[in-house]
Amino acid sequence: FFMKYAGYKLLPKDKVAGDPVDDAETLFQISLSLSTGQSLRISSSWWVITPDLLATSFKVQNDTGFRLDLTRQQAIRTALKSGQPCMLLALGKRTLKPRDMFVTYDPRATYLCDAGKSKIYDATQEKDWISS
Question: Are 128 and 77 in contact (CB under 8 A)?
Answer without folding.
Answer: yes
